[in-house]
Records
---
Amino acid sequence: MEAFEAAFARAVGTRHCVAVASGTDALWLSLLAAGVGPGDEVVTVSHTCVPTAAAILQCGATPVLADVDPATMTMDPASAARAITRRTKALLPVHLYGLCSDLSALKALARAKGIPLIEDCAQAAGASFDGAPAGSHGLAGAFSFYPTKNLGALGDGGAVTTDDASFAARLRRLRFYGYEKAHESREAGHNSRLDELQAAFLSASLKRLPAWIRARRGIAELYRASFGGLLACPDDAPRRRHGYHLFVVRSPRRDALRIRLADKGIETAVHYPKPVHRQKGYAPVCRVGPSGLAVTERLAREILSLPLYPELRPAEVKRIVEAVRACA
Ligand SMILES: Cc1ncc(COP(=O)(O)O)c(C=O)c1O
């Protein structure tokens, strides 16, 4: 596990990496180590997978939901700023689909408010902002190695990256019964270890991550070049190097397009059809920020994830492109 931690810290460009049992645990333990607890609030987005909110709730804190920027589909810094109150203890943007949130504005916001920035990098292994990898911009970056992710294990896994030595030491305690040394618990902790088999598999896969990201970006470029004017494609500027965990287009006629593509044998998906604040299990325990969630609501109706994985062959990409052009 230590060898993987060292290699992943090097890949992300941070001094420390603490491997844990899942991406949800990476978020939860980062928040705990940052001192988030009952009665506190954490500002995040509703346009995400529910574990982002679940991790906040697991600390006893309340997720406060900011809206997203329509072009990047990630946290809108102005909306996040309005959602911050005296109780806010952390800012938790999500680099959804593999595209970094506006980290320069969000870092400035966190600094101005005196709160830590914790990046949800579950989908963003291999992405970067201003030349620095996702997970190296705030107090902590929380990664998931669930098998479908850009860097996937054979089962569950996660990691936290950080430059802060005392934060890393606290994370190490929290993930392992609060132990400071063998059989000495300094504080009440948990059990969230990455098992050695997953770590060994991840160490081998990490070497291939740059090639996988290049393959993902190549497929994304083919899509983008083919859909100009037809569909709204993901934002990808040199400043924010997309990791293309997913290639998500937008169409006001999304549902009809999805059915027509399915008829042609092209499987698509929607990430995510119901934002967190529309989920029965989460709506009562989250709070919507003062600027509302109009963009989030619209995106949930328009987004469509096209097939994208490194092994997709050029002929298959061509077939998908032709089908989309015929159906859109
Ligand atoms: C944005 C986001 N955050 C957190 C997680 C949680 O990761 P895991 O499934 O490894 O617990 C996921 C994974 O699905 C995710 O997509």
---
Amino acid sequence: MNGRICMVTGASSGIGKAAALGLARMGATVVMVCRDESRGDAARAEIREKTGSQTVDLLIADLSSQEAIRRLAEEYRGRYDRLHVLVNNAGVYHTKRHVTVDGLEAMFAVNYLARFLLTNLLLDVLKKRAPARIINVAGAYHAKGRIDFDDLQGERDFDGQRANHQSKLADVLFTCELARRLEGTRVTVNCLHPGMVATHLVDKDKDFPKLLKLLYRLSKPLMKSPEKGAETILYLASSPEVEGVTGQYFVNKRVAQSSPESHNVQLARRLWEVSEKLIEM
Ligand SMILES: NC(=O)c1ccc[n+]([C@@H]2O[C@H](COP(=O)([O-])OP(=O)(O)OC[C@H]3O[C@@H](n4cnc5c(N)ncnc54)[C@H](OP(=O)(O)O)[C@@H]3O)[C@@H](O)[C@H]2O)c1
């Protein structure tokens, strides 16, 4: 991966940090995107120390804000003129409804729409020195998801799990639709389920039921480590086996079957159009 530039969002902890570490180990220039400067600095220092790499960069952006995403893309463009790998990983889980500065439900905004906006803003730098790869960290729960166009932001009736599943289905639909739109550009886009990974995703949710949180913590030893959880990302970022492969859903470094709903072309197109309006491109 020497000479390749890779951006990883949500690189301050969990799967994103492990992916950034793995890419730095492979010799790539890594651009970490983190929302909190001190957590980002600490993660970058750890990665630099573990790898000896001098090419680990850090950009600060709260991806729940569209203005911050636009600033991030500008800042990136100010520092680099190309991008070989974009890993859309940052994500949140909320039991209760949270609203972003843009008035959107937070899981829809961070887990899906931020990726839609950031990717579209960076498409020109991705295309410039193609081949390039976009990797969306989705999840197996996309299969339980439904896109509720009548209440996309959960204003009428909110359920944390349902909103999370919807955001993950949106990631898979986005992957498939973007792959269709990128045909012939040599920019590929794939998504993945990292497995059940022992991270702090649920711990960060203050409203997560205490008993479930305890059960979750107790079952952590049975889960994958973040390093194991990042393996499919590293495979999709670097392996010659997936050169030219696009629009696929991966589990454990293999193409897997995503839900029937995720293959609905009309649905993917409608979501794209609604998303365009929500970001006012
Ligand atoms: N863990 C699993 O079992 C599992 C399963 C399926 C899918 N996933 C997906 O994997 C991805 C990574 O999750 P994880 O398990 O590694 O959780 P995590 O440790 O909580 O990592 C999430 C990352 O996203 C960042 N983030 C959250 N909100 C952000 C925002 N508004 N702006 C910028 N960055 C933000 C977090 O930053 P902070 O450090 O500042 O919080 C953190 O770096 C998520 O998309 C998640 O849905 C995880």
